[in-house]
């Protein structure tokens, strides 16, 4: 069976975990955590990168730092993972969904303004498949209405928009290092922000409401309970795994790109024949080969294709069930405008196997097998 995903393993992960153990410090904010943050701050030109226990938790931190009050409205696509909404629902926000663009599957920037009310506080662009949303337009709207922007860049680590790293463009950016993402630590994420004014509050929030970060830097002589907080810092064991991956980012990136391009090239004739649609990447975006998907005619064809691939030993998957049609989406959100593309496009999308340790022979088998499918 060809798996859909397996967590990347590049080589030095276990060595680094062993180092962390020998160093005798397994809790958060040790050597590897610092190295991961510094590495990302440098490569992505980010003001601050804080490693977190997940992207979900980074989003929760961002929602808190945006000072969401009960009843505030947050604009996001319905075509996203549940965490994008959950983080804001936790702060009792109302979720306002807008439709996606069928070409990139990202929130349609032209539909954001009609969704703004006097309760709107935040816009949350989700960079689907590591392909950037139209950030210039989104930032312009946000500035015009005095809104904050939280980028859900869970899939956008090491992807760029007009030369800027995703996650560094809005007020906050959130990364995921879950095992299904390009670079991993099992479970983990990061919160990014550029404005130094957030630093103290973010540190306190992440360290159970204490000023322990200041204490460790020798800026205060004891640490105390300062404000509301939780525990959002990952263990050094996880950070050690991640650091080994970041160090080898080029290897991981190149391999994923090789797979992406192979799929793209070898399925192009099916697109030319009108049987499938392939992903589209706008000129100003450099994507990260986070996923490869195709879109077929409709849900029936997709169901047949997934079943056929499974019979041939290939695991392919679909997502997401649009949030606005799910029970919690009905309860916590509303759809602003018309759902022209969200449901329709989500029902015909299939993701193909994509991971660092995937054999190119297997990739060839996948495209050959799809080629022989007669149910389009
Ligand atoms: C994976 C993902 C998340 C959640 O990431 P975790 O690190 O598992 O919390 C959030 N949003 C999007 C768009 C994702 O793809």
How would you explain this protein's 3D organization?
With 376 residues, this protein is of the alpha/beta class. It folds into two domains: 13-247, 3-Layer(aba) Sandwich (Aspartate Aminotransferase, domain 2), CATH 3.40.640; 249-371, Alpha-Beta Complex (Aspartate Aminotransferase, domain 1). It contains 14 helices and 13 strands. An eight-stranded mixed β-sheet has the order 1-9-8-5-4-2-3-12, sandwiched between helices. The longest helix has 18 residues, at 249-266. 49% of the residues are buried. The protein binds pyridoxal-5'-phosphate. The site of pyridoxal-5'-phosphate has 14 residues, from helix 3 and helix 4.
Report the structural category. alpha/beta
* Largest sheet report: 8 strands, mixed
CATH homology superfamily of the largest domain? Type I PLP-dependent aspartate aminotransferase-like (Major domain)
User: What small ligands are held by the chains?
Assistant: pyridoxal-5'-phosphate
Q: Write down the CATH class of the largest domain.
A: Alpha Beta
What is the total tally of β strands?
13
In whole angstroms, the N-to-C terminal distance is 23 Å
Lateral arrangement of strands in the main beta sheet: 1-9-8-5-4-2-3-12
Counted up, domains total 2
CATH architecture of the largest domain: 3-Layer(aba) Sandwich
Question: Short summary of the structure?
Answer:
This protein is α/β, with parallel strands linked by helices and 376 residues long. The chain has helices at residues 13-23, 31-43, 55-65, 82-89, 135-145, 199-206, 212-216, 236-247, 249-266, 268-272, 299-311, 327-332, 342-346, 360-371; strands spanning 48-52, 73-77, 94-98, 120-123, 148-152, 160-161, 164-165, 172-176, 189-193, 285-286, 292-295, 333-335, 349-352.
């Amino acid at each position: 069976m060809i798996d859909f995903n397996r967590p990347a393993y590049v080589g030095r992960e276990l060595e680094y975990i062993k180092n962390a153990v020998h160093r005798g410090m397994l809790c958060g904010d040790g050597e590897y955590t610092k190295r991961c943050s510094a590495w990302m701050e440098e490569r992505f030109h980010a003001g601050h990168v804080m490693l977190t226990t997940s992207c979900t938790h980074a989003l929760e931190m961002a929602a808190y730092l945006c000072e969401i009050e009960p009843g505030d409205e947050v604009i996001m696509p319905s075509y996203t993972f549940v965490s994008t909404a959950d983080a804001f629902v936790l702060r009792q926000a109302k979720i306002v969904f807008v439709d996606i663009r069928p070409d990139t599957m990202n929130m349609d920037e032209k539909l954001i303004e009609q969704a703004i009310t006097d309760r709107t506080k935040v816009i949350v662009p989700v960079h689907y498949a590591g392909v950037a949303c139209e950030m210039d337009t989104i930032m312009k709207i946000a500035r015009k209405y005095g809104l904050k922007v939280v980028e859900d860049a869970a899939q956008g680590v090491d992807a760029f928009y007009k030369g800027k790293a995703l996650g560094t463009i809005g007020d906050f950016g959130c990364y995921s290092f879950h095992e299904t993402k390009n670079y991993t630590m099992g479970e983990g994420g990061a919160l990014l922000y550029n404005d130094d004014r957030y630093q103290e509050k973010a540190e306190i929030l992440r360290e159970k409401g204490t000023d322990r970060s200041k204490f460790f830097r020798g800026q205060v002589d004891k640490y105390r309970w300062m404000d509301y907080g939780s525990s959002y810092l990952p263990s050094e064991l996880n950070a050690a795994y991640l650091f080994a991956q970041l160090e080898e980012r080029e290897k991981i990136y190149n391999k994923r790109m090789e797979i992406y391009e192979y799929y793209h090239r070898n399925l192009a004739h099916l697109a030319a024949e009108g049987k499938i649609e392939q992903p589209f990447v706008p000129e100003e975006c450099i994507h990260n080969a986070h996923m490869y998907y195709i879109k077929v005619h409709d849900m029936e064809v997709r169901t047949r294709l997934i079943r056929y691939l499974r019979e041939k030993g290939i695991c392919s998957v679909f997502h997401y069930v649009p949030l606005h049609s799910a029970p919690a989406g009905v309860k916590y959100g509303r759809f602003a405008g018309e759902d022209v593309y969200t449901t329709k496009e989500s029902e015909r999308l299939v993701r193909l196997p994509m991971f660092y340790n995937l054999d190119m022979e297997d990739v060839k088998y996948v495209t050959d097998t799809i080629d022989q499918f007669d149910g389009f």
